[in-house]
Amino acid sequence: ARQDKRFLPGEAFSVKTVVKLLKNCGVDKIITVNAHNPKVLKNFNIPVIDLSAIPLLAEYFKREGLVENAVSLSVGKKALTVASEANSVLKGGFDYVPTQRDRVTGNVTLEAKKLPVEGRDVVIFDDIISSGGTMAKAVKMARENGARKVYAACVHPLLVGNAEEKILGSGAEAIVGTDCVPSKVSIVSVAPLIAEALKKQW
Fold first, then answer.
1. Residues 41 and 100 in one domain
2. Nearest CA among 171, 54, 49, 73 for reference residue 124
3. Residues 106 and 181 in one domain
4. Mean per-residue pLDDT of the chain
5. How distant, in Å, are the alpha carbons of 39, 70, 73, 116, 155 from that of 90?
């Protein structure tokens, strides 16, 4: 999902390959949920509808009463629209955790920033949690900035290796994901979101 362009010479353009395979199999329309870079999908000669499950995740926290007037944070400035979407439900304000990725090693570092979270409940949203390293760092940063409670939320909970242990160990109350990827944290169903999109299309 994240190999949506060639970051380094010789790398595969995986998204392009998958879309081409689907088209050759007879698929004439694709529905995705929180594609890592939906803009890339528009470059292919097949209609793509990218849905967002972020409001569903935010609704879960609100419905279950897990947070009060929570600040919504995104991982990285480019994903600030994710925090904004969540804030439309949680209403506690939004911001981002600044990140920098090394294209060679893949390592992500966080840049220093004062987050508006002191004494507040916080939910950190991301599209994918894979190794958990970046989310763990973001949770730790929110805690160091005085957050009262911090939750991690994502659409695609891959949770490779000890990702869950890392995130909870960094100070997260819990991890909440959708069932786009089956896991023990896949609490929020995207079925209603996809069903509604299908109704509109057919």
1. no
2. 73
3. yes
4. 91
5. 26, 6, 11, 15, 17
- Whole-model pTM: value is 0.89
Task: Show the domain range for 31.
Answer: 14-51
1 exposure class (CB count in 10 Å sphere: 0-12, 13-18, 19+): middle
Reported as a single tens digit per residue, the pLDDT across 115-163 is 999 999 999 999 999 999 999 999 999 999 999 999 999 999 999 999 9
Q: Are residues 127 and 180 in the same domain?
A: yes
| 4 within a domain of the structure (yes/no) | no
- Residues near 93 by Cβ (< 8 Å), separated by ≥ 6? 71, 72, 87, 116
Are both 37 and 108 inside the same structural domain? no
Same domain assignment for residues 87 and 180: yes
What's the burial of 62, exposed, middle or buried (CB within 10 Å: 0-12/13-18/19+)? Answer: middle
CATH code, domain with 89: 3.40.50.2020
| Phi and psi, residue 125, nearest 5° | -105, 140
